[in-house]
Amino acid sequence: MAQEIGFLIQSQHKFHINTTPEAGEGEETWSRLAAGFSSFDPQMNEENDQTGYLNGGGLKTTTVMGGQLTISFEGHRYFGDVAQDFIFGKFIKVGTQRETKMKWEQPDGTILSGPCTIAVIGGPSGDAGGKGEVSVEIHFNGTPEETTTP
């Protein structure tokens, strides 16, 4: 059930990544991206045009010309988790080997899904007595498909 009122609890967001990108359309293996990750940060990475016009009194007008939805995840390395093993198995891979699909189900019922690239894989790192700290960015390629669930 979609959340309609009250404070948002971040753990209500659900992320899934296709861990079998080599499979055909409709044959995806959707693995939940959650275990070990403690935070996420979605950004639009906007490209802005800032233009001064004669009627602006010397100040500029901004137009968002484009962007890319990216989501950064941080947390701890959890071996044996399908999503984490898939992501961190791409650490030294490049090109299309980093491409797959992602779904983001938001607490209000909005689902964003589409092709993506796994980028900026970091870690595990940290103190000798601590959990291995990790980070990764998921970059949606193009405009994600937006659907809603009741």
Concise account of the structure shown:
By secondary structure, this protein is mainly β. Helix content is 5%, strand content 47%. It comes from Bacillus pumilus (Bacillus mesentericus).
What does this structure look like?
This is Capsid protein. By secondary structure, the chain is mostly beta strands. It has a domain at 39-45 and 62-149. The chain is 5% helix and 47% strand. Strands 1, 2, 3, 6, 7, 8, 9 and 10 form an eight-stranded antiparallel β-sheet that branches. The chain starts with 13 loop residues before the first strand and ends with a strand.
Q: Give the DSSP E fraction (strand runs of 2 or more residues).
A: over 45%
Fraction of helical residues: under 10%
Secondary-structure-based class equals mainly beta
Low-confidence stretches: none
Average pLDDT level: 96
Computed CA radius of gyration, to the nearest angstrom: 18 Å
H and E string: EEEEEEHEEEE
Q: N- to C-terminal separation?
A: 7 Å
- Gross morphology is globular
Number of helices: 1
Report the strand count.
Answer: 10
Question: Mind describing the biggest β-sheet?
Answer: 8 strands, antiparallel
Protein name: Capsid protein
Organism: Bacillus pumilus
